[in-house]
Amino acid sequence: GGWAAFSPDGRRIAVVTQSTGSALEIHDVAGSDPARKIPVPAGASEACWSPGGNFIAAPCGDGVIRIWDT
Questions:
Q1: What is the pLDDT of residues 55-69, one digit of tens each?
Q2: Which end of the chain is more exposed for a tag (fewer CB within 10 A), N or C?
Q3: Which is it for the CA torsion 13, 62, 65, 54, positive or negative?
Q4: DSSP per residue over the chain, as a string?
Q5: How far is CA 57 from CA 31, 32, 67, 68, in A?
Q6: What strands, in cross-sheet order, belong to the sheet with 2-6?
Q7: How far apart are CA 31 and CA 1, in angstroms?
């Protein structure tokens, strides 16, 4: 399974995947390969962008909300 969200400007999409280990993948909409792949603790099931698109946050299975600079 997975979850996805477009960045506020619509140029990137964040995808949380569980199929090959928990990861947050950030894709450029124009490309196919992930521009960035971030390992996340098991249990991350969603993510949300900051209003400016500079950060992305994900609640993880260990009860911690993690924030990454994009």
A1: 999 888 888 899 999
A2: N
A3: negative
A4: -EEEEE-TTSSEEEEEE-BTBSEEEEEETT-SSEEEEEE--TT----EE-TTSSEEEEE-TTSPEEEEE-
A5: 23, 22, 4, 6
A6: 2-6, 12-17, 23-28, 34-39
A7: 21
Provide the whole-model pTM: 0.79
Distance between CA atoms of 35 and 58, rounded to whole angstroms? 18
User: In angstroms, rounded to a whole number, what is the distance separating the alpha carbons of residues 26 and 64?
Assistant: 20
20-33 pLDDT, tens per residue?
Answer: 567 888 889 988 77
Residue 11's pLDDT band, with cuts at 50, 70 and 90, is very high
Instruction: Taking the CA atoms of 17, 29, 31 and 34 in sequence, report the sign of the dihedral they define.
Output: negative
